[in-house]
Design a protein that fits this description.
Annexin V, domain 1, mainly alpha, single chain
């Protein structure tokens, strides 16, 4: 087996966390790296999931995941990923994660982004990565109330490139994970040509929640994931992706 089909079959042969490590290795292979594949796997994980991933990667390839990523990523991409690698999301505590704290964090995000000449990405990434979903939802509400738009829109205004896409994915994974995955699948098929590696990783990684992602995808884009796969892929590669999608959401 070779090509995109062979790669998809290889990923399917692994248990979930090992498959993700194989995906990371594939995304970091050759000239340049597929930063969005790396970010889609590393952004939005729980602390426990991140620790399992790091241990599994070292067991499989005898290489520290952080060192691999340091050699592949630079600038804002690297800063975002390394905040995620720290597995430092706080446990939600209503005594600490108060409304006042949410307003304070929202104001800090704005002051370190649009409120200054040069964006302080480190400060923004630190708050978003450390915030549990319940608190980030309150920050999002406070930000919208005070500045007129949601956090993902703020990230769109304050960041650029893959760091922007990765941070928006991180925010959405914490706030609306099924919508986030649906948008990620669409992004793999957007523009000139399909990002086959990103599409493959999405369909295989998220098969366990595909029955929730599918309705979100249909609502957002008025088409099924299977329809998107058919329009973007061919041959045995298309067949394996359709088979995975059909397991969670059979057609007809």
């Amino acid at each position: 087996m070779s090509g995109d089909f062979g790669q998809a079959m290889q990923f399917m042969s692994y248990p979930p966390h090992e498959a993700e490590c194989a995906m990371i290795k594939a995304a970091a292979k050759g000239v340049g790296s597929n930063a969005m594949v790396l970010m889609s796997i590393l952004c939005g994980r729980t602390n426990a999931e991140m620790e399992i991933l790091k241990k599994t990667y070292f067991r499989m390839y005898t290489r520290d995941l952080g060192k691999l990523l340091a050699s592949e990523l630079h600038g804002d991409n690297e800063r975002l990923i390394f905040n995620c690698l720290q597995a430092g999301e706080e446990e939600y505590d209503p005594q600490f994660h108060t409304t006042e704290k949410a307003i304070e964090d929202a104001e800090t995000i704005h002051s370190q982004g649009q409120g200054r000449m040069f964006t302080n990405e480190r400060a923004i990434f630190k708050i978003i990565c450390a915030s549990p979903p319940e608190h980030l939802e309150n920050i999002n509400r406070a930000y919208a109330d005070k500045f007129g738009y949601a956090l993902w829109k703020a990230m769109e205004k304050e960041l650029c490139g893959n760091a922007e896409r990765g941070c928006i994915h991180l925010v959405n994974m914490k706030l609306k994970p099924y919508d986030a995955v649906a948008r990620l699948i669409k992004s793999a098929c957007a523009g000139f040509g399909t990002d086959e590696l990103l599409l493959t990783t999405c369909v295989i990684r998220y098969q366990y929640i595909m029955n929730f992602v599918q309705p979100a995808h249909i609502e957002l884009f008025s088409k099924s994931i299977q329809d998107r796969i058919r329009s973007e892929t061919r041959g045995k590669y298309r067949d394996i992706l359709l088979a995975v999608a059909d397991l969670a959401w059979p057609e007809g």
